[in-house]
Amino acid sequence: MVFSSNIFLFVFLPSFLLLYVPTPRRYKNHLLLLANLLFYALGTGTYVLLLAISVIANYVFARIILQLADRWKTYFFWLSVVFNLSFLVYYKYRAFLLGISDSALHFFGVDIPVTAPELVLPLGISFFTFQAISYLADVYLEQVEPTKSLVDFGTYHSLFPQLLAGPIVRYSEVAAQVVTRNLTWEGAAEGTYRFTLGLGKKLLIANPIGSVSEAIFSLPQAELGFVVAWLGAFSYGLQAYYDFAGYSDMAIGLGRILGFKLPENFNQPFRAQSITEFWRRWHITLFRWFRDYVFIPLGGSRPSVRSYFALVFVFVLCGLWHGPTPNFVIWGAYQGVLMAIERYVAIRYGRVQRGIWAMPLTFGLTVLGFAFIRCSDLSFGWHYLSVMVGISRPEVVYYPIWYYLEADKQFVYAVAIFFAWFPVERLSALGTAGGVRLAVKYASAFVVMALSVISLSASSFNPFIYFRF
């Protein structure tokens, strides 16, 4: 079940809120925990047992870590990390690792087929696994006090607004809100507005642009031309941004309605003037997770040769987190190398040089990476990039670029480009009176909601890219 679905919008959410709002404060977490598990069960079936195991196990792990002496605390902490990662490895990376083993055996002349049946990936497993590890790490480092209530921890760990695709929330950010929070009309209004904004990003921008991306990346290699290839990569970049940022907006909005203030996850990343800045604006909570729990412990924050290797290693892991395929591994290494180069330049010359070309250059390098991970395999990925840089040319072109850019699509692209690059903070300065500004704000939200519902009813193309992760 996804947020941009009729069953969620018109059945699950209103039914839950009708029960949640009048429920006494001391029982709100009990109801919310049941709603979290029901939400996950409706989307994944029996995999809800996996989530329940994660809740119970990590609650117990944190309580044990709190009681142990230093030496045993360290051993048990790493044991708990391995426990969490074992589910992720089994469901997400088993086929990838067995494929590597099979290739290695063939290389050494051993012909023993190593195969495994395909498994359905539990939705959101990468997100709630990383969230659990952050909780255990903060308890281990004595940065947070573990909660004594299993219900409170379960509410945090399985919170349905951000369960499937983030943001990745650190316990310290919501610890007080988990225990007690206030439901206000202001919070409900702001949350509804934010949710509507995200729904519009998803249904009115990401989906139409995604249909263009889908058509171009489905072309036979012989028909792929330079301009069309760039349009496909550009479209996929915009689709990924509005798809994921839209989900994050909906998650933050829902959290606000329920009394939670979840961390921001996107800040107009295509305005970045360097790859380093891009990753401070794109999927902010994931970048922060890798920085705090992998990069810094590896010594990456110190100016040494180790920091460059740490950067590349972290982004290889980041690529693997996004997908267990060679394309994602290479994409991660590519991002890490670019970051290492920028780090060297910043240390050597004081800062990364910025100018009129910084933003388009950063975006171009980013789009090349998006194109590569969108391709189905390495062969197609290399061919697609070779077309984008002008090395390969099409054998035949059946459809020019305008075939993909009909009048309605042109309008969507114009809106997408505006809100991706225009400094939106300037919009708050528009208008002459606060009341007028609020009226325009909520009237526009009503229009966006109406158009989104119409789009949801009229279109069957409604993928969520980050649900694969």
Proportion of residues in extended strands? under 5%
β-strand number: 0
Distance between the termini: 16 Å
Q: How do the SSEs run, as a string of H and E?
A: HHHHHHHHHHHHHHHHHH
Look at the structure and give the mean pLDDT: 88
Largest sheet: none
- Tally of structural domains: 2
Poorly predicted ranges = none
C-alpha-based Rg, rounded? 23 Å
Secondary structure: helix percent:
55-70%
Structural class by sheet pairing and helices: mainly alpha
> Which term fits the overall shape?
globular
Number of helices: 18
Question: What is the element layout, followed by pairings?
Answer:
Elements: H1 6-20, H2 25-44, H3 48-67, H4 70-107, H5 125-140, H6 150-157, H7 160-163, H8 171-179, H9 185-217, H10 226-258, H11 275-281, H12 284-295, H13 305-322, H14 326-349, H15 358-374, H16 378-388, H17 407-421, H18 434-458
Helix pairs in contact: 1-2, 2-6, 3-4, 3-5, 3-6, 4-5, 6-8, 9-10, 9-17, 9-18, 10-15, 10-16, 12-13, 13-14, 14-15, 15-16
